[in-house]
Amino acid sequence: MRPSIILALLAVGCSSEPKGDDVDMCADGMCDLPNDPQEVSCDRRRTDAFNENRLQFNEGFLRWSCNDVQGVTLDDRGQEYCEYFAIAKPDATSAPLVLGKNKGEDSTYGTTDAAVTLSPEQITGLEADPTQVVGQCIFTSWNSDIDMPVTADPVLGVPVAAAPFRMTFRVNSAEAAQTLVTDCFVQDAPGGHLRDDDFLRGCLLDADINQTEYRKSDTTICSSTMRLAECGCTTTGTTSTLGELISPYDKRGFVLGTWSDMTKLPPSCHFIELGDGSNTVVGCDLNAGDLLAGAADVRAYCQDKYADNVVVHVPIPRTNVTCDPKSSYSAYAETCSATPWVLTASPSGS
């Protein structure tokens, strides 16, 4: 089970009875925390999943952006099997700074400083050429429990290695993804009312199991896996479980790409080659103007500038999946398509 990372959220986010400045933030729909009503979070995730320009369910893969949902702030950023931080080198003689990197297996360990303090001389130098590249926003889907060798050039003087380029949170691991698939592979998820909708049924199943219905990743994987079970799908031609096929230990992590192409990246971004072609670590340019504008929280600046367009792709092992809805006892088996993991916006039976 993927445990919720809620400690810092509860400390800095909106509670059920917001006070002071939090009243306005919650009134604007900014509260999307684990203590939201399950139906509220699931309805929001459903809207994300069926955005016609950014569909999360596809025949070859599931996908979502690295951007955290609204309400996830400070030390909790990086919950979508994609963590991000920044590397900055304000001038030629300064040592590189690793900014906003998660430091431990959950948010209680905190992060490295996300802010950068610039000297007057550095500010003058940055203002002289705002377009010069002085940093990188790093996005990584390298699983926290995968230890593989790396062959790569340093990034602004920082060696490319497990620290800091691998994800850190325990929930961002191959094991956690496998467990999520196993837990959600059920034919008897509760139905009725909201649960007659395939996505909402899967999202609320995730809420029952993991209390992570506010995440894009967990709800997408759980609802798709649930439908595979409901449609009598089994793995064939392999000794691996479905979880192992989706998140194997011999892969570094889920592939990163864009909404339009899993082999491409947004402008000013590039894959950091690790020696295996895994496409699991991405660098996006931070220029001098960016660093000046985002100095108070460089990781948040990276999130705002790039995270919504760096996209996690989760492969569906079609060649090793065979489905037989007639073998299923699920009440929703009769609505199965030829590709049941591709959920649609139409509720079951409609």
Give a description of the structure.
- The structure is a single chain.
- 28% of the residues lie in helices and 13% in strands.
- It is an alpha+beta fold.
- It has a five-stranded antiparallel beta sheet.
- The chain has one domain.
- The radius of gyration is 21 Å and the shape is elongated.
- Strand 2 and strand 3 form a beta hairpin.
- The N terminus is likely disordered.
- Helix 10 crosses helix 11.
Largest sheet: 5 strands, antiparallel
Task: Give the overall shape, derived from the CA principal axes.
Answer: elongated
Q: Indicate the structural class.
A: alpha+beta
Contiguous low-pLDDT stretches (5 residues minimum) are 1-32
Radius of gyration: 21 Å
Mean pLDDT: 89
Number of domains: 1
Proportion of strand residues:
5-15%
The helix content, as a percent range, equals 25-40%
Number of helices: 11
Describe this structure in a few short sentences.
The chain is built from eleven helices and ten strands.
